[in-house]
Design goal:
Two copies of one chain form a homodimer.
Chain A lengths: L1 H5 L14 H14 L10 H6 L6 H32 L5 H32 L2 H20 L3 E3 L11 E3 L1 H20 L4 E2 L5 E3 H6 L2 H4 L1 E6 L6 E3 H15 L5 H13 L5 H10 L15 E4 L3 E3 L7 E4 L4 H5 L2 H7 L6 E10 L14 E11 L16 E5 L1 H5 L5 E4 H6 L6 H17 L6 E5 L11 E9 L2 E10 L3 H5 L3 E5 L1 H8 L3 H9 L3 H14 L1 E6 L4 E6 L3 E5 L3 E2 L2 E2 L3 E8 H12 E5 L6 E5 L10 E5 L4 H16 L4 E3 L6 H9 L5 E5 L4 E6 L5 E5 H12 L5 H5 L14
Parallel strand pairs in A: 3-10, 12-14, 26-27, 26-28
Antiparallel strand pairs in A: 1-2, 4-9, 5-6, 5-7, 8-9, 10-11, 11-23, 12-13, 14-15, 15-16, 16-23, 17-20, 18-19, 21-22, 24-25, 28-29, 29-30
Pfam families (chains A, B): HGTP_anticodon, tRNA-synt_2b
InterPro entries (chains A, B): aa-tRNA-synt_IIb (IPR002314), aa-tRNA-synth_II (IPR006195), aa-tRNA-synth_II/BPL/LPL (IPR045864), Anticodon-bd (IPR004154), Anticodon-bd_dom_sf (IPR036621), Gly-tRNA_synthase/POLG2 (IPR027031), GlyRS-like_core (IPR033731), tRNA-synt_gly (IPR002315)
Enzyme class (chains A, B): ligase
Chain lengths: 731, 731
C-alpha cells in the first residue's frame, strides 16, 4: 500500500499474523535463496517475508501432497471411466464390474485420505489450530475490554461508525497514564521542546509534505451499488480463501496465488486491476462487477473559513506541526543543534474499510519526536546510558538470511554499524525502556530494521519496534533517521508576484493569478523558475479561471530560503521516533491479560497484570462487611489516599470480598485495602494474592510507595506481617 | 448570535470590553428603568447590559453636549449665511462686514470648543484612555507570549490561518499542567468516569443534538469578490465607528445606533439585513454591495469513509460523546445516580472571521463534565466542603437592578435560592477553587447568573465563571443545570422500516427510502408517527430521490425507548460544567504578567508570576561563573531534580546571572538554583527575589517541596539562611 510505504516513520504497517517466528524464517531462508535478485526486486522482499512463501519446507510437503492428491484423483477418474466403459460394454460380466467398482471405491478412499492429508497440511501451514487459540484468546481479551468499558465502539446507539472507538473510564485512565509517562520519559527527561498544533491543516502544508498527492490506498467500487472496497483486501481474501479451501488447486496455481499474496503491496493500480479481472473477483456482497482500482486519498477533507475556497484536511500525522515551526524552535534552542521537539495529538486517516479493532482506526493518538541533528555528527552524549541494554533485534542481515531476531547489546549494534548512528541507537534504547516499563513483554518485543527498499529513498536507517499480539507482529513505534527530507519539504519557498505587472496584463483576473502563483508548491515553483530563466515565459494554468495564462519573468520572483549556521549551509537531519499510542495500549492489554481458576471450577477469572504505572486505578478500598464503623475507616483511608494523590475507588457494596477482588482484578487494580478492623487493615497484591497487615495511619503512604514505583511489592512484604487467613476469601 | 445562545453551557460569550464595573452597572440601572418590559423583550436585557446604554448619566451629558454643539453649529451656519448676504449686498460697508466676520470667527471658536467637549465626552464614555492602556498592556503580554513561544500563529511559514494557534514549548507545558490539575481536581477527586471519544462525528449524532440545524452565525458576502463577513460584526463596527467619529450625529441618531448595538445579538437575518441596507453598509475592503445575511453552519464538515455518502463533522463540543454513552456509563456506575462523566478533548468551530487572538479560535481544547442526577434530588453530599467559600457572584437580581457583582457565601446563595440547587452550587465552588489555585485573580473573577431569557428554555439555572482581562469579562467556564434536554435528544429513537412493504411500493428506490426514513431525527420521526396514527399515511420528501413519496402505516414502525429506574420513568437531569481551557490559559497569562524595573532605567523586565502548579518549568540551574567544577555541581543537581520529578533547565551560558534570572522570570520559572560553591548553593524565588542558602544534598528535595505545593516559600525561608549578597546580581 502506498499509504504504508509513504512515511516509514509514522505509519504502522500491520504484519500478517504468524504464530511463531522460526518456520517463517525457515521458509524465508529457502525463499531468499530461491528468488534471485534479478527475478524479484528487493523491494518486495519484506512482503515475501511477511506472507507465507511457496518454497518453504512445509509448503514443499504441501506441494507434494497436492501432487499426490492430483495423481490419486486422476487414478480415480481413470478407474471411474473404466467402470463406466465396462458397464456400457455389451456382455460385461457382473463379477468383473463389481471388482472394478471395488477398486474404484478403494481408490476413492485413498484419494479421500490424500485430500485429508492435504487439508491438514494446509491448515498446519496456516497454523489453523494456533490461529484458533489466538482467536479465542483475543476474544477473551476483547470481551473483557468491552464489558468493562476499556473501550466502546463509538456512536453505538446510532449503530456506530467503523474504525472509531471511545475509551471508556478504565481505558481512558490507562491512556492518560501512558501519555503522562511518555511525557516524563521523553519530553521532561530529555528536555524536548513540546508543541501542540491544531488538527485542522491547510492544504498548502500537506501539499508540501507530499500527503495531498501520495497519501492514498487503491480502491474499487461495486459498479451498481457504489460500495467501496480496498482493492488489495479483495485480492488477498480471494487468494487466501482459494489456498485454504480449494483442494483441487494444482501446485502451480497454489504457487501463483502465494506469489500474488507476497507481491500484493507492490502492485500498481493496473496490476491489481488485471489480477482482479483474471480471477473474476466481484463485489463480495452483491457479486456485481467492480470498477478498476483507483487511488483514494486517506485524509479527511474539509474547508477552512466560510468562503469554501481554502481547502484543509485533518492532519494525518502530528510531525508536520513540528517541521513548519522548525525555525522558531531552533531559535528557541539558542540556534544550537541537536535538539528535539515533540508532539502528542490526534491524527486522522479515512481508511477505506477499517479492520482489526483498535489496530487500524480512523482517528488515533500519535506521539512523535523530531530530533534535529547535524548530519555530520550524529553522536549522542547520553548513548552510554543505554549502551549496555540487550534485547531482541532483527537486523537486515538476519532477515535476508532467513534467521530469527536475536538478542544484541545495543552498544555493539552501533559500534558494528548494524544501527547507523548513536542518536538512532539512543532512541531505540529509550523506546525499549519505555515499552518494557509500561508492561510490554520483552520476549514479544523486537526491533526490526527496514530492508533497504522498504525505506524511503532519503532515509538513512529505520527500525520498527514491533510487538507480537494475536494479530501477529505489529509495528507500534517507528524510529527513522529521515535525513533532511522533511525540513527541505518546508524550506521557505518565497514567491513574490508583481501585482503591478500582473494587473497590467490580467486586469480583473489579477487576483486569481496572484493566488494561483502563491499556491504553487516547491516543485511547481522551481519548474516555473527554471522555465522563466531559460525561456523568459511560461504557460500557467489557473484553475479558478479555468484556463492557462502566460507568465513572464517580470511577473513573479521565485526563490528558496536556505538555513545557515556558521557559514556552513546545511539542512539538519531528522531522527523521528513515532509512537502509535492506541496500538501500544492494545498490545499492552493483550500482554497484561491472563485468567486464573475461580472457586467454582468451570469459571475462569480475568486479570490484567498492569504495572502500577499504567493501572487505571491504583487501589481499591473494601470494608470487609457492611458496618458503619468499617465504612468510616474506609472513608478515612480514601481521604488519605486522595491527599497522597493515589487514585482509588471505594466499594461498600455488600458483595463477598472474593467477588470484589475479582471485579477489580479484571480492570487491573494492583492493590486492594480491606478494612477488617478499626486499627489495621490488609493490603492485597493482585497477582500474587499475598496480603500484608498495615496500620490505618500507614496505609496511604505504603500504597503510594508501591503505586509510585519507589518500592516493589516484595520490598514491602518484608516490612509488614503477612495476613494469611483472608486468602480463603478469594473466589 | 445563534451560536452563542445555542448551548449556554459550552460556548463562551465574549463580553464587550468594560474597564470598570461600576459605570456599566449605573448605566444599566438607568437603562433598566428606562426600558419597560413591554418595550424591550427581557431576552435582550443582557445585551443591553453589555453594550453602552443611551440613557446613562454619562450618555446624558453626552446628549446635552451633542445638542449644544448642534445649536452652536446652527448659529455658525446662520452667521456665515449672514456674512455671505452682507458681502453680496451692494454698498455694504467694510466695517460692518469685518464685524460680522469677527462674530463668525468667534462663533466658530465656540463651536470648536463644543466639538472638543463632545469628543472628550464620547471618548470618556468609551473609556478611550483606559482602552488605550488596556491595549498597551495586552500588547506587552502578547509580545512576550509570542517572543517566548508560549504560542505561535499556526502555519506561519505558509502565511498562517486565522483562528489557529500552536502552543510552543512553555505554552504547551502550561496547558499540560492545567489539564493535569483539572484531571486531579475533578476526575480523580470526584471519581468521575472519564471518556475519550473521537472528534470525527457522524451527522446523525449532531442532527439529534440540534447542531446541524441550529449551530449557525449570520453571514454576508461581498457580491463581487465573494469575501465573507459576519453580518453582526459589520453592523457593530459601523455603529461604533459612527458613534465615536461622527460628531454631527443628532442625539436621536446616536440613541438609535446605541439601541442597535444593544439589540445586535437578537436580530433575525431579516432585521440584520434591513439595518445593513438602511445604513448603506458595504463590504469593508471593496465597498461592493453585500448579499442578504444567511445562516452559516460553524461546524467543519467532512465525509466519513470512501463512499462520500456518510457526512460527518468535527465535533463542536465534547459533551455529545458522553451523552451517547450514557447508558453504558450508567451501567458502569452500577445503575446508580448521581454520577459524573468527564471528557477533555479538541473541539472545532469554523468561525466566519475569528478575532481576539486566543479567545476566539477555530480549534480549541474543551474539558467538560456531565453530572447526571435525579431531577427530584439535586442535593450533594460534599456541598458542605465548599459552603463556606465567599466570592464575587453576580445574580440575576443584581444585574436587573443594575448593581455590581457582590461577595456572597456560597452556602447562603444556595439556602436563599439564588443558586438553584446544591449540586450546581457544589460545582460553582469547585470551579472557583480550580481557577484561583491556577492563579486567576479573585478580584477579577465573578460568577454571573444567566438572565431568564439568556438560557435555553429547558435549562433550570446557569452560571458563567467570567474572568476579566484586557478584552473585558470573558466567559471561561459555563456551569449549567440543563435539565434533561441532552439525554432526551439521544433517547433511543427506534425506526424500523418494513423493507418488504417498501420494496413492493418503491422497487429500485427502496434503499433510498429506507435510508431517508432511518435518517430522520426525533422531531421528524415523532411528527411522522403522529401523522401516520391520525391519517394513516404521510408525504415524505426523500432528498436522494429529489421527490416526495407517500409513506403508509405498514411501511415503518417508530418508537422511543424510555429509561426506567425502580419503575419510576424519568430522564436524569444533567449539570454541565464546561471549561474553555484556552480561554482560561489566556486569562491566566494576563493575570500573571507584570513588569518591574531593570538596572537600566529605561528597560522594564517582564515576569509571569505563575504558581508552581502551572509554571512551565519549576526550576532553573545556573552555575554562577563558567568553570568545570560549578558545571559539574549543576549537573549533579540536575540529575537529582530529574530523579525527584522536578522539571528544570540548566543554563551554562556565560551570560550574567541577572540576565539569566530575567530570561527565566519571563517564562515564569518560580525557582532558580545558582551554583556559587561546591558544597552549597542558593535558591532564589522569582517574585520576592529572596534567596536562601541550601546544601547540595538538600536542593532537590527543597525545590520539590515548594514546587509541589507541600510548602510555601515562606515556610521554607525560615528553615534556611538567607543569602543577601547576590541580590545585587539582579538586573
Amino acid at each position: 500500500m502506498k499509504t504504508d510505504q509513504f512515511r516509514s516513520g509514522t505509519n504502522f504497517i500491520l504484519v500478517a499474523p504468524q504464530s511463531d517466528r522460526t518456520p517463517v524464517c525457515m521458509r524465508f531462508a529457502l525463499l531468499a535463496s530461491a528468488v534471485s535478485k534479478s527475478f524479484v526486486p528487493t523491494k518486495t522482499l519484506r512482503r515475501l517475508h511477511l506472507s507465507s512463501a511457496s518454497s518453504s519446507p512445509m509448503a514443499a510437503s504441501e506441494e507434494s501432497l497436492r501432487l499426490a492428491l492430483a495423481e490419486k484423483q486422476a487414478t480415480v477418474d481413470a478407474q471411474a471411466e473404466a467402470v463406466r466403459a465396462l458397464k456400457a460394454r455389451p456382455g460385461a460380466v457382473k463379477p468383473e464390474i463389481d471388482a472394478a467398482v471395488e477398486c474404484l471405491k478403494a481408490l476413492k478412499v485413498e484419494a479421500g485420505a490424500a485430500a485429508r492429508q492435504l487439508q491438514a497440511a494446509v491448515s498446519r501451514n496456516g497454523n489453523a489450530s494456533a490461529a484458533c487459540s489466538r482467536e479465542a484468546f483475543r476474544q477473551a481479551v476483547v470481551n473483557t475490554l468491552e464489558r468493562r468499558l476499556f473501550y466502546i465502539p463509538s456512536f453505538k446507539i446510532y449503530r456506530g461508525v467503523a474504525g472509531l472507538y471511545d475509551y471508556g473510564p478504565p481505558g481512558c485512565a490507562v491512556k492518560s497514564n501512558v501519555l503522562t509517562f511518555w511525557r516524563q520519559h521523553f519530553v521532561l527527561e530529555e528536555n524536548m521542546l513540546e508543541v501542540d498544533c491544531p488538527c485542522v491543516t491547510p492544504e498548502v502544508v500537506l501539499k508540501a509534505s507530499g500527503h495531498v498527492d501520495k497519501f492514498t490506498d487503491l480502491m474499487v467500487k461495486d459498479e451498481k451499488t457504489g460500495t467501496c472496497y480496498r482493492a488489495d483486501h479483495l485480492l488477498k481474501d480471494y487468494c487466501k480463501q482459494k489456498l485454504e479451501k480449494d483442494l483441487a488447486l494444482s501446485a502451480e496455481q497454489a504457487a501463483e496465488l502465494k506469489h500474488v499474496l507476497a507481491m500484493l503491496d507492490d502492485f500498481s493500480a493496473e496490476e491489481l486491476g488485471a489480477k482482479l479481472k483474471d480471477y473474476g473477483i466481484t463485489a463480495p456482497d452483491t457479486k456485481n462487477t467492480l470498477s478498476d482500482p483507483y487511488p483514494f486519498n486517506l485524509m479527511f477533507q474539509t474547508s477552512i473559513g466560510p468562503s469554501g475556497i481554502l481547502p484543509g484536511y485533518m492532519r494525518p500525522e502530528t510531525a508536520q506541526g513540528i517541521f513548519v515551526n522548525f525555525k522558531d524552535l531552533y531559535y528557541y534552542n539558542g540556534n544550537k543543534l541537536p535538539f528535539a521537539a515533540a508532539q502528542i495529538g490526534q491524527a486522522f486517516r479515512n481508511e477505506i474499510s477499517p479492520r482489526q479493532g483498535l489496530l487500524r482506526v480512523r482517528e488515533f493518538t500519535l506521539a512523535e519526536i523530531e530530533h534535529f541533528v547535524d548530519p555530520e555528527d550524529k553522536s549522542h552524549s547520553k548513548f552510554i546510558d543505554v549502551a549496555n541494554l540487550e534485547f531482541l533485534m532483527f537486523p537486515r542481515r538476519e532477515q535476508m538470511a532467513g534467521e530469527s531476531a536475536i538478542p544484541i547489546i545495543l552498544g555493539e549494534a552501533v559500534s558494528k554499524g548494524i544501527v547507523n548512528n548513536e542518536t538512532l541507537g539512543y532512541f531505540i534504547g529509550r523506546v525499549y525502556l519505555f515499552l518494557t516499563r509500561l508492561g510490554i513483554d520483552k520476549e514479544r518485543l523486537r526491533f526490526r530494521q527496514h530492508l533497504p527498499n522498504e525505506m524511503a529513498h532519503y532515509a538513512a536507517d529505520c527500525w520498527d519496534a514491533e510487538i507480537e499480539c494475536s494479530y501477529g507482529w505489529i509495528e507500534c513505534v517507528g524510529i527513522a533517521d529521515r535525513s533532511a527530507y522533511d525540513l527541505r519539504a518546508h524550506s521557505k519557498l518565497v514567491i513574490v508576484p508583481s501585482k503591478k505587472e500582473l494587473g497590467l496584463s490580467f486586469k480583473g483576473n489579477q487576483k486569481m493569478v496572484v493566488e494561483a502563483l502563491e499556491a504553487m508548491n516547491e516543485k511547481e515553483a522551481l519548474e516555473m523558475k527554471a522555465s522563466l530563466e531559460s525561456k523568459g515565459e511560461v504557460e500557467f494554468y489557473v484553475c479558478t479561471l479555468g484556463k492557462a495564462v502566460v507568465i513572464t519573468k517580470k511577473m513573479v520572483a521565485i526563490s528558496i530560503e536556505k538555513k545557515k549556521e556558521h557559514q556552513r549551509v546545511f539542512t539538519p537531519s531528522v531522527i523521528e521516533p513515532s509512537f502509535g499510542i492506541g496500538r501500544i495500549i492494545y498490545c499492552l492489554f493483550e500482554h497484561s491479560f491472563y485468567t486464573r481458576p475461580s472457586k467454582s471450577v468451570e469459571e475462569q477469572l480475568n486479570v490484567f497484570r498492569f504495572p502500577p504505572l499504567v493501572a487505571p486505578i491504583k487501589c481499591t478500598v473494601f470494608p470487609l462487611i457492611k458496618t458503619a464503623k468499617f465504612d468510616d475507616v474506609a472513608k478515612i483511608i480514601a481521604k488519605s489516599l486522595t491527599a497522597a494523590g493515589v487514585s482509588h475507588i471505594i466499594d461498600i457494596t455488600g458483595t463477598s470480598i472474593g467477588k470484589r477482588y475479582a471485579r477489580t482484578d479484571e480492570i487491573g487494580v494492583p492493590f486492594a485495602v480491606t478494612v477488617d478492623s478499626t486499627d489495621s487493615v490488609t493490603i492485597r497484591e493482585r497477582d500474587s494474592k499475598e496480603q500484608i497487615r498495615v496500620s490505618i495511619d500507614e496505609v496511604a503512604s505504603v500504597v503510594k510507595e508501591v503505586a509510585d514505583g519507589q518500592s516493589t511489592w516484595s520490598d514491602i512484604t518484608g516490612r509488614y506481617p503477612a495476613h494469611v487467613a483472608a486468602q480463603s476469601n478469594e473466589e
